[in-house]
Fold this sequence. Notes:
The protein is an alpha/beta fold. About 30% of the residues lie in helices and about 35% in strands.
Amino acid sequence: MFKVIVTQRVDSLKERNETRDALDQDVCRWVVAAGGLPFPVSNVLDEATLLQYLHHIKPDAIILSGGNDIGDFQCRDNTEIRILNWAYSHKVPTLGICRGMQMLVTWSGGILHEVTDHVGKRHDIYGEVTANVNSFHRYGALSVPEAFTVIARSTEGTIEAIAHRDWPCEGWMWHPERDFPFSLVWLDRFYKIVMGG
């Protein structure tokens, strides 16, 4: 099994006076189905401790998971920016899912914009990647920097998937872990990103 660092959403439970890192168990099930072993990372680690964690785990891949909008919780934004800087410098294969793709776009200098009719729906995408996918997002990529190529758009032209030109890194606006049974197409695609296929 290959080792996969997975970022977590932040949930604020006011009734308990708690702020929690959280990860949908289906994300972990999806990683295992792809042949990986998930290592969730906390959003409370400072930069030095996070780098220590990354060097200790020596991940074969990174997944930036969904949940939260960018700007909702600075601790999560900081964690993912630091992980992306490290993953890029070490060329560690990376997948951004939904918010994860939004973070890839923002981190690399692209622009997000609000989209309509993309929450709790299914729609077709086309391009290098053609499929019918689920959709649970309120923000999409308006543009991507030259380091990335667009590999899928919705029928109305919204950017739905991107790939980096010289680093094994993709962003998908859909949630592969929310389709049951898991699609072999997405499991295989992630496996190939990790293994260089």
